[in-house]
Amino acid sequence: MLLVRSRLGLRSGLLALALGAAALSAPVHADGGVPTVPVGTGPISLAVNPTTNRVYVANALSNSVSVIDGTTNTVTATVSVPLPPGFGGGVDISGVAVDPSTNRVYVANRSTSRVTVIDGTTNSITATVAVSGSPLHLAVSPTTSRVYVTNDGTDSVTVIDETSNTIVGSVAVGAHPLDVAVNPSTSRVYVTNALSNSVSVIDATSSSIVGTVPVGLSPYDVAVNPSTNRVYVSNYDSNSVSVIDAATNSISATVAVGSSPAGVAVNATTNRIYVANAGSGSVTVIDGSTSGIASTATVGVSPHAVGVNPTTNRVYVANNSDNTVSVLEAAPPDTTPPTARPTQSPAANAAGWNTADVIVTWNWSDNPGGSGIDPANCTSSSTSSGEGTLALAATCKDLAGNTGHASYTVKVDKTRPSTTATPVPGTLLSGSPLITVTGTATVKDAAGQTLGTQSFTCFDTQGLKLTLTATDSNG
């Protein structure tokens, strides 16, 4: 097992060779046509401001923050976060977070035990807040104007007031707290304890622990969907994601993903979860409604962080070992149910009737770009039963769980008609001479049923005619 406590340093050591492409700002494309943006050296964390459409990338070995314009996928600024006097050098930056409501960016400086505050409008440093231990990652609660910082070494979470840039609280958590996420709807804060294999649940109102949830091995990152009240935890050494039901603080699902899952992000609008697999160079997309894998995308080398802009539906992935950020155009979720194109056998006659039971084949199909139908949950054919105007119904589910409904009407008449004659054959009308006319008539109903050849006798008395009426069982 790779000890998480030394993981940042280990990753940094692998990045001693800087890539020449890191000085470029124009987007290039990785394999498969995924656009990538060159950033600083050793990108380890990123944050997205959907209000300004800016992406902030923490470069661990450059001690800088790259600012990406989400419209053009280009770096528009690089904010240097230098070490204070007395520090010879080394890895300092480890995490970044943004408050969209204030347009402030917060950077965790692990070696110098501080949090740097950047004005997102001017891209300038406006404040520095000293914290305890080695701050690794941060999360912002826009509703309470609080910043939560995980501190390695002291196994605690520091609470910073955004307005005054002062520390207003500290909460003891598990061993080696790595990442933190906030649910502003419930005032709950979730912290991954990498060496305790657990998630601490903090009540933001009282700054107290209200729960501890066991998860997989070496929990790395954590993200929250406020809409569903679900928490997603990447387990670095279990190759899985734990899904926590925040209402009960219990595991509701465990999803197998790629190798060494690190970063995780949620798009609450589409209920999609994105997992950066550091060991397999990919991003796994999880459908939050089913906890199933929706797709997998290939990105750069050693992706460690991921962020989502729900407004543009773009996903950003920090590739730690090739100094780039991959930009994925996230496919919208499949919310369209399958549709049917029913056909019947045998075909109806010209009047629209059949004389025997009808088999309807439904011929289901999903929408273009959809997940595809699930044959095991689709009615393939239906057979009519009885007579008259009959309505047949069927359903079909696609792989995204959408259910399509279809109906089809058939007309079936299996009974031959009966006949009556008026006047009754052989009846002599009063006062009329008898003129007898004999003949035959062939009687059919609308369904084509033939009664047969009917004999009749007609009395023509001053224009009076015999009427032959045929009536089938359906009137």
Number of helices: 1
Assigned CATH class of the largest domain: Mainly Beta
- Percent range for β-strand residues: over 45%
Report mean pLDDT, rounded to a whole number. Answer: 85
3D architecture notes:
This protein has 475 residues and is mainly beta. It has three domains: 4-329, Methylamine Dehydrogenase, Chain H (7 Propeller), CATH 2.130.10; 339-412, no CATH class; 419-471, no CATH class. The chain is built from one helix and 41 strands. Strands 1-2-29-28-27 form a five-stranded antiparallel beta sheet, with no helix packed on it. A four-stranded antiparallel beta sheet has the order 3-4-5-6, with no helix packed on it. A four-stranded antiparallel beta sheet has the order 7-8-9-10, with no helix packed on it. A hairpin with a 4-residue loop joins β11 (134-141) and β12 (146-152). The termini are far apart.
What can be said about this structure in brief?
The chain is mainly beta and 475 residues long.
Write the layout of secondary structure elements.
Blueprint lengths: L6 H7 L14 E2 L5 E4 L4 E7 L4 E6 L4 E6 L4 E7 L12 E7 L4 E6 L4 E6 L4 E7 L3 E8 L4 E7 L3 E6 L4 E7 L4 E7 L4 E6 L4 E6 L4 E7 L4 E7 L4 E6 L4 E6 L4 E7 L4 E7 L4 E6 L4 E6 L4 E7 L4 E7 L4 E6 L4 E6 L9 E2 L2 E3 L13 E3 L2 E2 L7 E6 L2 E3 L4 E11 L4 E10 L5 E5 L13 E9 L5 E10 L7 E5 L4
Antiparallel strand pairs: 1-2, 2-29, 3-4, 4-5, 5-6, 7-8, 8-9, 9-10, 11-12, 12-13, 13-14, 15-16, 16-17, 17-18, 19-20, 20-21, 21-22, 23-24, 24-25, 25-26, 27-28, 28-29, 30-33, 31-32, 32-35, 34-36, 36-37, 38-41, 39-40
